[in-house]
């Protein structure tokens, strides 16, 4: 229920971005935000958008990406990053 990047998340993004940009800036791409199926679908859709934008803003602040050529996409709970979240037996 958060779109705030953790210190560990920032470290992982730094490592991924450094590898992806080792040959220069990222020319074009899409950052996809996800949410689990718990709760209201419209809330989860908005949460996944906030998560994608948080990553985009972080990468842009570090100079890894140009926000004019990197877009975001929010898939909400339709495509959870982890399976099994919120499932009951």
Main sheet record: 2 strands, parallel
Fraction in beta strands = 5-15%
Give the strand tally: 2
Order of helices and strands: HEHE
List the total number of helices: 2
- The share of residues in helices is 25-40%
- Low-confidence stretches are none
The largest sheet has its strands arranged as: 1-2
SSE order and pairing:
Blueprint: H1 7-20, E1 29-33, H2 41-61, E2 70-74
Parallel strand pairs: 1-2
Structural account:
By secondary structure, this protein is α+β, with helices and mostly antiparallel strands. It is 39% helix and 11% strand. A two-stranded parallel sheet has the order 1-2. The longest helix is centred in the middle third of the chain and has 21 residues, at 41-61. The radius of gyration is 14 Å and the shape is elongated.
In short, what is this structure?
By secondary structure, the protein is of the alpha+beta class.
